[in-house]
Amino acid sequence: MKLWQGLFAMIWIAFLEFLIVMSTHVAAFGGVADPLIYIHSALGFAMILLALNNYNGVRNTTIAGRVKRTAQSTFQLSILMAVLGVILLFKGYLTWEIPVVNLSLFYVLLFVHVVNAFAIITQAAAVAIAYDMWEDKEFDQVTTAGEVPPMPTPAKAASKP
C-alpha cells in the first residue's frame, strides 16, 4: 500500500468506526451489539497498525516537521483509544459517580474516548491532505488572491504504437 493510500484509509476506517458505534447503540436492543463491538475492536486494532505505518512513512520523508508531529500524535492517540476501549469493557467496575459532572466514571471515560476519536479523524485528514499536497508539490504553486482556479487536468500518458 502506498503511503497516501494508508493516510486516506485511516480517515475512512475512522468514519466506519463512527458508523459501527452508532449502530451498536441502536442495535443493542435487538441483541446484535456484541458482534459489532468485536468488529469495532478489530478495526480499532487495525487503526493502531495503520497509524504506526503512516507515522513511520511520513517520518521517513522530508515533509515539514508539523506534519510529522501530527502523524506522531495521531499514533499516540490511537494507543490511548485502545487503552480506554479496554477499560470501557469493564463497565460494571466503573460505576463510581463523579460529583462535579454527575456522571459515572464509565460515561466520563466514554466521553474522552469519543473526543479522542474525533481528534484522530481530524488529525488523520490533516496529515493526509498535507502529505498529498507536499508530494504533488502544490505548495510551490501560487494563485491570485480571490481566485479559485479550476482543478488541473492530469496529463495523458503517451500511447504506445
Walk me through this protein's architecture:
This protein is an all-alpha fold. Helices cover 66% and strands 2% of the residues. The protein is built from 4 helices and 2 strands; from the N terminus they run αααββα. The chain has helices at 3-27, 33-59, 65-88, 105-135, and strands at 97-98, 103-104. Strands 1-2 form a two-stranded antiparallel sheet. β1 (97-98) and β2 form a beta hairpin. α1 runs antiparallel to α2. Mean pLDDT is 88; it is low at 26-30.
Primary descriptors:
single chain; 161 residues; mainly alpha; two-stranded antiparallel sheet; 4 helices; 2% strand; elongated
Shape: elongated
Which parts are unreliable, with pLDDT below 50 for 5 consecutive residues or more?
A: 26-30
If you compute it from the alpha carbons, what radius of gyration comes out, rounded to the nearest whole angstrom?
A: 20 Å
- What share of residues are in beta strands? under 5%
- What is the residue-mean pLDDT, rounded to a whole number? 88
Number of helices: 4
Count of β-strands: 2
Order of strands, widest sheet:
1-2
Could you describe the largest sheet, including whether it forms a barrel? Answer: 2 strands, antiparallel
Structural class: mainly alpha
Cα(first) to Cα(last) distance is 31 Å
Helix content: 55-70%
Oligomer: single chain
Element-by-element helix/strand order:
HHHEEH
